[in-house]
Every structure is written in structure tokens, then in C-alpha cells.
Amino acid sequence: MIIEPRMRGFICLTAHPEGCAQNVINQINYVKSKGRIDGPKKVLVIGASTGFGLASRITAAFGSGASTIGVFFEKPASPGKTASPGFYNTAAFEQQAELLGLYAKSINGDAFSNEVKEKTFDLIKAELGQIDLVIYSLASPVRTNPNTGITHRSVLKPIGTSFTNKTVDIHTGTVSEITIEPAKEDDIENTVAVMGGEDWEMWIDALNEENLLAAGATTVAYSYIGPTLTEAVYRKGTIGRAKDHLEQTAFKISDKLAAIGGKAYISVNKALVTQASSAIPVIPLYISLLYKVMKEKNLHEGCIEQIQRLFQERLYTGSPAPTDEQGRIRIDDWELKEDVQERVAALWHEATTETLPSIADMEGYKTDFYNLFGFKVQGVDYGKDVNELVEIKGLV
After folding, report:
1. Is 234 a catalytic residue?
2. Catalytic one among 30, 222, 224, 234?
């Protein structure tokens, strides 16, 4: 079938298998170009099919030659209907891993559930024995707690007072003002339940109890802080409260892993175009301005550049990873450079529908957004008839 992007708001309802595959190959080639990392050998990535999770799996496999197990929740294709992009990403990753003789198996299901956890543990026991790195990179808006049966839904709201600021429609480039009403207490609790550290801790506790973590095992979860510009809706909002919980959970996990010489880290990453960030008011405008400034300063990174640098320059240097006073690895250091943020803040005040084409990188933002779904990837013939029915060979 001929596959074209079909949009609904900030979501693309279609994905292109060859575009997704080329996107994965491009990331693999970048990691290979940066040289070998003396890193992990047996890796579990929870949330492995897109964004930072996919970049982590690629970096571990093609940077360190690691065996990897990926857990994710993606939709397979049916005749005439495409799979979700993460499904195509994983199929391409596994195909490239097989070409190099790298072990790669995948589990598609609800990572919050006990069933998927048990299925993962059985696979580790049968084929890898123990894991030396666990990446936790889930980005779901909904979570059903397997112990209580309660379904929690996260919200993107400020706390305390309403928030009014600029935002942009990424498809039209129209800058407008938006007001977001403050969260209620149950909004905060539900967002923490979905996006906080409870499930991460459940995964690590269970892996540890099953003796599936190797001596000295490391686990990493991803967070974001961002600038003053976005803090009301992000770091000081409901998501920020969840990130606070996630970051505190790292200390709890580290205490538990001390007996095996293990460690839990939070990596604070740069603002990037993801399906999740595209849904947050204000953030797309900030990112489009940030991209313009960081590209001008030759500081821009995508997911794969961020994670490759995290592995090579922070996690696997032969010394403990350098952290800030809250114990976090700061791979957002280039984004938050003083000169970068001063320039972004100045551009923010200038941002209107009329000025945006010249002061922001909206084309870069849109290209990255379409790339998430396998579209606008260089070297792909989108006029060609392609088979949407792609399989993941290592799916368990």
C-alpha cells in the first residue's frame, strides 16, 4: 500500500515501515561512528520502542555489543492498516541486530502488568541468566496498578493557579495564548501514580528478588527539568510532581541494590520532539526556539546523540557517573547553558505568528515530529508501494 501521514491533532494515525526502518538504521550508524563503548552486556529496556528507550537499546546493542530484551506496548499492522511506529522500529532494530549476530528479543504488552513482568523474568531466566543494565523509559498516559486494579490517568496541568502563556500549533505555525486551569489533588495523585517511580521500583524489586540482577547492576530512568519558561506547566506542574517522585525513587532503589553493588540513576535529558512533548502546551514553541539556538551554536542533539553521550561520557567511563547535588546525571547541560537560555528567553518575547518563521526552527520541529512516524526521512521513496504487514522476528 501507499502510506501517507494522516494527522489528528498532535498524533499521526499512520506509520511508514521503511521510514521507521531507515530512522533506526540512521541511529545505529551514528552509534557505530562514535566508537565502541565498554558498557553493558545484558540489557533490559522497559519502554524500548521509541524515543529515549529505543535510543538506549540501540546504544547498548550497537555501541557495546549487548544482548537486549525490549518491553513495549505497540500495535501490530493489519491488512490495509499500519502498525504503530514503535512496532516498525522494533522490527527494524531486531533485523539489524540479527545481521551482526546480536541477541535481541521483545515482549509486546502492558509493562505495568504482573503478567508482562513475569513473562520478562521467565525469558531472562531461560536465555540471559542475569541483567546488568535496566533502562526504565515508559511514557504512557494511563496505568492500571496491578495490585489495586485501579486505573490512573495523568494530566498536564499547573498546580495552585491557572497558567497563561504562548503556545504554537505545530502544523500551521500559529502562535496563540493558552490558559490551563490548575490541577485538583486527585489529578496530582493520578499523575504521580502513572509517571512517578512506583512501577520502576516494582520492576527492580521483582528482578532483585528473582536474582536476575548481576552484581554491580545499574538501572536508569529518564527525567526532565527544563527552563523557567516552562516550569509552571512542567516542572512545577503535575508532571513535575511525578518526576520528583521518580527521582526520589532512585535513592530508594539504590539503597536496595547496595547489597549487590548496584546503583539507580536518574538521567535528566534535553527537551526533544516526542509524541508526549508534542501534547504539552507551551513546550513545542519552546523546543522550536531551542532548536534554532542550539543548532546555531552547534550544540543540538537528538535522542540518539543524547543517549550515546550518556553511555560513553557518564555511565561507562570506568568511574562513578558524575551527578548534581540531587544525585542526578545532567545530560541536559548543553540545553541549560546560560547563553542558550538567555537567547531562547529573548526570542520567546519576540515570538508571534509573523516572526516565528525567522526566529524559530519550526521546519526542524516538524521534520522531527514526522520522523517519529517514519515520514520525511531522507532516502525513503514515499511514492512506492510497501508492505505494511511487518513482523518482529524475536517477539516472545
Report:
1. yes
2. 234
